[in-house]
Amino acid sequence: MKILIIEDQRELSDSIVEYLSSENYLCEQAFNYAIAKTKVSLYDYDCILLDLMLPGGDGLDILRDIRKRRNPVGVIIVSAKDSLDDKVKGLEIGADDYLAKPFHLPELKMRIYAVIRRKEFAANNILHSNGIDIDLLSKTVGANGKIITLTRMEYELLLFLIGNHDKVVSKGALAEHLSGDMADMLDNHDFVYTHIKNLKAKLANSGITDCIRNVYGTGYKWVER
Fold this sequence. Notes:
Blueprint lengths: L1 E5 L3 H13 L3 E5 L2 H10 L4 E4 L2 E2 L2 E2 H10 L5 E6 L4 H10 L3 E4 L4 H17 L4 E4 L2 E4 L4 E4 L2 E3 L3 H12 L5 E2 H9 L10 H16 L6 E4 L3 E4 L3
Parallel strand pairs: 1-2, 1-3, 3-6, 6-7
Antiparallel strand pairs: 4-5, 8-9, 9-10, 10-11, 12-14, 13-14
């Protein structure tokens, strides 16, 4: 899962990145209004942590722009501005949650988890697809009564494909989801093929076959049966 942290306090932002990275989230940072606007217009995220007071602009304007473009990304306002007006205004514009500073990182993690779960998987903790059971809280995958051991990249790839089931997902979109804005700097996206190959092999070893289809020249599709 990919998180954008829009926060001008670098020490706080870095501590959030360190904590969430240890929980297997892919994190990107924006320290001012201009960088944040660029990132939200160019890249897709599973959740955005949004400070309201930013150098160069108002975080609420970024939220307005996100919702104006009908971007369904989950947005959690994380701000020291703890007035009722700010909270109400943010939620009215389209924020999914509001967390006042200071806060505990484990609470932030659970807020992120809850937003992503509501947005992508209809508020379920257990995701079922084609005989696969995914525990979103413990991040474990099983099939036919056995645990399937996946790498972080394989797990993220599986969730992304299932979340977009029956849609063709391009290699570029998969590369961006797995590596963030670093995808723009890569010469090619061959690493996506490697992760797809390894994921298909592990699923096949557990009796799960023919779920990931290669759409020639376009990308991949998770086919619900």
